[in-house]
Design goal:
alpha/beta; about 240 residues; 8 helices; about 15% strand; 7-stranded mixed beta sheet; binds zinc ion
């Protein structure tokens, strides 16, 4: 059975920090989604691959993913080779998503940038009938992007207010990465309490733009079709 959405990022936790609320909202509407991590997170300062796998699996359960798969494209030097591209092309064909979510291909972390480019290209190539892999050709309708360190003006914002509890629980499942007063591992930017406050503040800011408590912003190379522009702005702070 195909998924409606495939969320693909370099590292486990990239999805949780950026677009997990949207996945939860889609699930509540009966949509199915899967998560693909392109690397095992072996370069992380804190935790190890086994711990991060467990954390990622728990987060996926909290969000309600149909599956979560980890590939081995190389953390801290993600390799956008043709071989890796073909692995991704076949995975997209296998799951037949209508929408692909990935990192905006411009970010501070080169893995995020490379992941965004690789996923964009693979989603396109997946539609080429004469390119043979194990599964038949399938091209997703649209690839949309979330921002990590660098913020990009969103093409649209999703109201995720009702999903924040699950989103926060999924983020908290990454005990090895984020703030944990009990942890004796080296402190990083990510492990400071202020990091999670920043992540939530960003969701508040996106929410502010659309008149809700929390939102997640996305960039799309073409704008979504809106049937009723009046309804689309209804209830927001007037005068913007
Ligand atoms: Zn990352």
């Amino acid at each position: 059975m195909p998924v409606d959405v495939l969320a693909i990022a370099a590292h486990a936790d990239d999805i949780e920090l950026t677009c997990a609320g949207t996945l939860v909202q889609l699930k509540a509407r009966g949509r199915r989604f899967g998560i693909v991590d392109l690397t095992g997170g072996e370069m992380g300062t804190r935790g190890d691959v086994a711990t991060r796998q467990l954390e990622a699996r728990r987060a996926a359960q909290i969000l309600g993913a149909e599956f979560r798969e980890t590939l081995d494209f190389g953390d801290g030097g993600l390799v956008a080779s043709r071989a890796n591209e073909l692995v991704l092309i076949d995975l997209i064909r296998r799951e037949r998503p209508r929408l692909v979510l990935t990192s905006y291909p411009d970010d501070r972390h080169p893995d995020h940038r490379r992941a965004g480019e690789l996923v964009t290209d693979a989603a396109y190539y997946a539609g080429l009938r004469k390119l043979a892999t194990a599964h038949p050709a399938h091209r997703p309708q649209q690839t949309i992007y979330f921002s990590s360190a660098y913020v990009h003006p969103p093409t649209f914002v999703v109201d995720v207010t009702a999903a924040m509890e699950k989103r926060n629980a999924a983020i908290r499942s990454y005990g090895s990465q984020f703030h944990d007063p009990e942890s004796r591992q080296p402190q990083t930017i990510l492990s400071q309490e202020s990091f999670l406050a920043m992540v939530e503040a960003r969701a508040r800011h996106f929410g502010f733009l659309i008149g809700t408590e929390f939102g997640e912003g996305f960039v799309s190379k073409r704008p979504p079709r809106i049937d009723d522009p009046i309804a689309a702005f209804e209830g927001m702070e007037p005068g913007f």
